[in-house]
Specification:
With about 230 residues, the chain is an alpha+beta fold. It has a domain of about 60 residues. It contains three helices and ten strands.
């Protein structure tokens, strides 16, 4: 039986994400929309063209996975031809590195990692990685293709989203408090108790948002790295 490898989005609509950008700092956004970018021969394959044996193409930008300013991309990639690929993000800052080596992604990568999870990277806005491509196959190549696929997310600034939510909660609090005043009476005690429970929940949620805004970052966040540069 063939094993299926499902590439799920790292987060869902409505979740807060922290993104380590190419500047090396964290920003916070809320996902408002998500859609897949499936593997395809049209649109999601980058062909670096003809490469002679023992030739290297240095730091080629992958413009086909560039995102809009309010978007995040989650990508994996497969090397389709006998080439080696090294990734940098931003230019000059290598990805997939240890203290003493930088990993080159090859056709062997999918053999060892069929899900290609080890090739995963994120792109925030226009901060796309650059690929260095090497041909050590022993022959000249007419094609040097890399297949990309993944997920596209539309984002909203977290502080803007939090302030909008804070306003909606405050409006709901005012409404529930007014309804409690109108419901006073011996026959309406059960209804008033339910509304007081709701009132307490709204106040707790408001306090949480006010704490997050005062602190400057969300309490619950999914973090991703969109750079090879360390955070600060």
């Amino acid at each position: 039986m063939t094993q299926e490898y499902v590439f799920e989005p790292f987060a869902d609509i409505g979740e807060v994400v922290g993104i380590l950008t190419t500047e090396g700092s964290w920003i916070y956004r809320v996902i408002t929309y998500a859609e897949p970018l499936p593997p395809s021969e049209e649109g999601m394959v980058k062909d670096f063209g003809e490469i002679s044996n023992n030739t290297t193409l240095e730091e080629k930008e992958i413009s086909l996975i560039k995102m809009r300013s309010n978007e995040l991309g989650q990508f994996r990639f497969e090397v389709l031809d006998p080439i080696k690929v090294k990734v940098a993000q931003p230019r000059g800052i290598a990805r997939f590195t240890s203290r003493n080596t930088t990993v080159w992604v090859t056709q062997l990568t999918k053999e060892r990692d069929p899900s290609l999870r080890s090739t995963e990277f994120f792109v925030y806005g226009g901060d796309v990685p650059v690929f260095t491509v090497k041909n050590e196959s022993g022959k000249d190549l007419t094609k040097s293709r890399v297949q990309f696929y993944g997920w596209r997310f539309i984002l909203q600034d977290w502080k803007e989203w939090a302030n909008e939510r804070k306003k909606r909660i405050e409006e709901a609090l005012d409404k529930v408090e007014s309804e409690i005043e109108e419901e006073r009476g011996p026959r309406r005690e059960a209804k008033v108790r339910r509304k007081r429970t709701l009132l307490r929940q709204l106040r707790e949620e408001l306090a949480k948002i006010e704490l997050e805004l005062a602190f400057g970052e969300p309490l619950k966040v999914k973090r991703v790295v969109a750079t090879g540069r360390g955070g600060r």
